[in-house]
Amino acid sequence: MTVWAGIVAAFGTVGMVVAGLFAARATTRAAAATAQATRAAAHAAAEPNQRAEDRAAFDAIKNELRQELTTTREEVRSLRSLVRAFAWYVGELTSQMRDHRIEPPAPPPRVDEYNRTGV
User: Fold this and answer.
1) CA distance linking residue 53 with residue 35, whole number of Å
2) Backbone dihedral region for residue 108 (phi beyond 0: left; psi -120 to 50: alpha; all else: beta)
3) pTM summary value
4) Going by C-beta distance under 8 Å and a sequence separation of 6 or more, which residues neighbour residue 97?
5) What residues have CB less than 8 Å from 106, skipping those under 6 apart?
6) How far apart, in Å, are the Cα atoms of 63 and each of 3, 8, 57?
7) What is the per-residue pLDDT across 72-113, written as a single tens digit (0 to 9) for each?
8) What residues have CB less than 8 Å from 15, skipping those under 6 apart?
9) Residue ranges of the alpha helices (H) in the chain?
10) DSSP assignment, residue 23?
């Protein structure tokens, strides 16, 4: 073998090693890029499902709050009716006391306010 053949063989071997390193590095980067793309695709595919789950949870909360609001309104109507009935009843009792010349005690401040304002 000649000197030139040895030099070419040495350069060829070094070239092969360098090419192998570049190929390994490129393969590693390609694998990382592929993994990242796969994660991004999975995240993008899961997004509509997550939104549907969020929407379902929101609808459930909204329906529950509407039901509670309806119940609360019914209770407020009932309590207003009860307060009016008590006010009428106390008015009648007060009138009967005065008819018998008995002065009723002064109402508490909150009752007096309700009698004045209706609230």
Assistant:
1) 26
2) beta
3) 0.49
4) 103, 104
5) 112
6) 89, 81, 10
7) 999 999 998 998 898 889 889 999 999 999 998 888 888 888
8) none
9) 3-99, 109-117
10) H
